[in-house]
């Protein structure tokens, strides 16, 4: 069960990141925003991502504030969300949006590295667990 849930989670992570990049590209190229199911897809993917994360934490016995690498992922998620909304919607200039996009990608990478290394500093800690 854990392995299947982890596969669902990792798949949702990849789809969420790819969707974010695609939405940013559409934004900076001036294309119209998605409508219908394409507009709903990011919300569906992110819901699956959150549900699978909660399921993995439950099954694995991971508790926030007791597992430092999980705390790092939660901080990274908050940074990713804030930077992502600036990159896609709230940034007033192209420069602000581009900077926020880069920050969101760094947060995304940090989250992934903390998950893979099981260390709050991720790859900056110097190796894989």
Helix content: over 70%
End-to-end distance: 22 Å
Structural class of the helix and strand makeup?
A: mainly alpha
The tally of helices reads: 4
Biggest β-sheet description: none
Number of strands: 0
Shape: globular
- In terms of quaternary structure, what is this? single chain
Q: Average pLDDT, to the nearest integer?
A: 91
Number of domains: 2
Describe this structure in words.
- The protein has 129 residues and is mostly helical.
- The protein has two domains: 1-61; 63-129.
- It has four helices and no strands.
- It has helices at 2-28, 37-60, 68-90, 94-117.
- The longest helix is centred in the N-terminal third of the chain and has 27 residues, at 2-28.
- The mean pLDDT is 91.
In short:
The chain has 129 residues and is mainly α. The protein contains 4 helices and no strands. The chain is globular.
SSE order and pairing:
Elements: H1 2-28, H2 37-60, H3 68-90, H4 94-117
Salient structural properties:
0% strand; 129 residues; 2 domains; globular; mainly alpha
